[in-house]
Amino acid sequence: MSKQYQFKLVLLGESAVGKSSLVLRFVKDQFDDYRESTIGAAFLTQTVTLDDQSTVKFEIWDTAGQERYKSQAPMYYRNANCAVVVYDITQSASLEKARTWIRELQRQADPSIVIALCGNKTDLSARRQVTQEEAKKYAEEEGLMWGETSAKSGEGVADIFTAIAKKLPLTAAPPASRGGGARGGGPAPRSGVDLNRQAGGQSGHNEACNC
Amino acid sequence: MDEEYDVIVLGTGLTECILSGLLSVEGKKVLHMDRNDYYGGDSASLNLTQLYRKFRPDQAPPAELGRDRDYAVDLIPKFIIASGELTKILVHTDVTRYLDFKQIAGSFVYRDGRISKVPSTEMEAVKSPLMGLFEKRRAKKFFEFLQGWRDEDPATHQGINLDKDSMKTVYEKFGLEPGTQDFIGHAMALYLDDDYITKPARETYSRVVLYTSSMARYGKSPYIYPLYGLGELPQSFARLSAIYGGTYMLDKAIDEIITDSDGNFVGVRSGSETVKAKQVIGDPSYFGAGKESEGGKIRVVEDGKVVRAICILKHPIPGTDDSDSVQIIIPQNQVNRRNDIYIAMVSSTHNVCAKDVYVAIVSTIVETDKPELEIAPGLQLLGPIYDKFVSVSPLYTPVSSGERDNIFITRSYDATSHFETVVEEVQDVWQRVTGEELKLKKREEASADK
User: Fold this and answer.
1) Which residue range forms the structural domain that includes residue A31?
2) A209 to B447: CB separation less than 8 angstroms, yes or no
3) Torsion angle, CA of B341/B347/B351/B356, rounded to 10 degrees?
4) Are A44 and A209 in contact (CB under 8 A)?
5) I want to staple B341 with a disulfide (CB 3.0 to 4.6 A). Which of B303, B378, B429, B433 is the partner?
């Protein structure tokens, strides 16, 4: 059987740049034009299969809106293996905001974190304010991955997540052993206790449900 | 901030965050604010910079303690008792998915000048120096009695009525020595003083059962602890609240609680902004705690004080087998006090400090006007102390239930060693805020790969 690796991926970016839509497209291949601000679903998983048949399972954390008033909890960045920082190509201010988030990640997150800068809404390229050259140049300077997507059409979405999966150092990651396994990041085996396993005679959750 | 909310929550301590999370899941529109730029209020875990800023504003953390980001120093010393109510809430709300837990390696009790491990296995119990051979047999009979107790089966009661007979009666029935009584009442039932002895035995029975079932759950000790410190707990419930639509604002000054002419809650003011809601919940510091009343309404009163000394050590606590984490209880009788002294220690194994550093908090309920002297018996057990941050915190309690004016004030974190009283507080406030008993619902599964 091929190996499966699990990683924690966090999303960042200004409100309304399409963070949740991007995840919804990636995970469920759906799009909703009139999506409200994120409610309820903020913990999704999706698996990417690489050329050598090993699989990378992303445990995706949405911001849950806590970033809006600069109130993102340190827990959010904790042990994140990768981050997708999203801006809207039709709003140059959103790239400025993305830069702020990248600085925040460089300060707060693990130094080995893989960061991808993602320009969303290419379906609205007629209203483009951020050129590819400008964003790409910035990404290169900061050593970030970069790509453009349209969560609406699906263009580029799988590409950016696959590119991240390829870039993650699979040797250093713990193979997914159970739900939540991406926490703890490093190669050390988990030695913690699982509260779900023996809770009041309740049977343990299986691996797939990722609780 | 011009929207109107169902509930405004002030302060991001654990009590407030659990309530905020549960209210949001229930569909309430919640605005949650904190004056600090970090989560956790009085139950936060601080990095070195934050710790020094709080206790020694004019001193930078010494470089030899290592990287700032490696630290998460708890402000209040508590552990999670494995089979307790907090564990149930964590599991029911699924916030366990944001947290990793580790065991606390051992629980110790002080007796006759030395500390001994509270036995976690039968083998340890047989070898334990805490009791003599004959006393062990008597104690065994006592524990078998507790374990065998069935409310509906009088044959298991051995003539005892848990709801009427005092714990004193039970101790006498089994002929237990005073030292053993101290051990059961303080190291297992976790009473802080001896008032329980004359009360009906039921509560002590429940506490001992909680302790032993928690001990049996993971072994070693009855306690578990979240990696990266207790501050992860409020953060995880805050995330739950945010996921269900709760709005978070940190670093927000709360300048005024606005009420109408009848004293009922209208909203809160921050600078020139005012935000309205039907109800407000908050910790005492947002309702005049510790401040002189300026002709305004007194909403909270002081109900005792706790002294806590956060001690940075460069070694494990002597006599604990180099345990990476421990609880040590010094029963009051052993040091001629009314209240027990507690020591809670964690270390780099729990990702709360740099490698080879140990963080111990010594605490007790203040009985004299020299609180720091009162914890001396605890400090003496630690060996050389690298640095020490002492605080005396008043415990505040609200003067009214809030049901009339829609102002619901939570209590300060008490001196108990775990979070069970915090959960009782949550249940109590929930009942008053919603008018209904708190019933935990299983959170809906949001995973995409099902």
Assistant:
1) 4-209
2) yes
3) 150
4) no
5) B378
The model carries a pTM of 0.90
Distance, in Å, from the CA atom of B110 to the CA atom of B230, rounded to the nearest integer, reads 25
Query: For chain B, where do the domains classified as CATH 1.10.405.10 start and end?
Result: 119-220
Query: What kind of architecture, by CATH, is found in domain B119-220?
Result: Orthogonal Bundle (1.10)
User: What is the CATH topology of the domain spanning B4-56+227-301+396-434?
Assistant: FAD/NAD(P)-binding domain (3.50.50)
Mean pLDDT of A138-162: 96
Q: Which residues of chain B have a Cβ shorter than 8 Å from any chain A Cβ?
A: 38-39, 69, 82, 87-88, 90-91, 94, 96-98, 100-103, 217-218, 224, 227-228, 232, 235-236, 238-239, 242-245, 247-252, 444-450
Task: Select the residue from B73, B96, B99, B218 to test the A interface by mutation, using most A Cβ atoms within 10 A.
Answer: B96
The total domain count for chain A is 1
The reported pLDDT for the residue numbered A200 is 44
Q: pLDDT tens, B220-267?
A: 899 999 999 999 999 999 999 999 999 999 999 999 999 999 999 999
Q: What is the DSSP letter of B104?
A: -
According to DSSP, the β-strands at B273-282 and B407-409 are: parallel
Q: How confident is the model at residue A37 (pLDDT cuts 50, 70, 90)?
A: low
Of B357, B232, B243, nearest to A192 by C-alpha is B232
Contacts of A111 in chain B (CB under 8 A): none
Distance CA B310, CA B39 (A): 19
What is residue B183's DSSP assignment?
Answer: I
Closest residue of chain B to A30, computed from CA coordinates: B448
Give me the amino acid identity at B220: K
Q: Do B103 and A193 touch (CB under 8 A)?
A: yes
Q: Which of A44, A37, A43 lies closest to A68 in space, CA to CA?
A: A37
B244 Cα to chain A: minimum distance (Å): 5
Give the per-residue pLDDT at A136.
Answer: 97
Q: Which of A130-144, A179-193, B72-86, B209-223 is predicted with the least confidence, judged by mean pLDDT?
A: A179-193
Count the helix, strand and coil residues of chain A and give each as a percent rounded to the nearest 5. 30, 20, 50
* Candidate from A40, A65, A198 with C-beta closest to B217: A198
Predicted confidence (pLDDT) per residue in A46-82, tens digit: 999 988 888 999 999 988 888 888 888 989 988 899 9
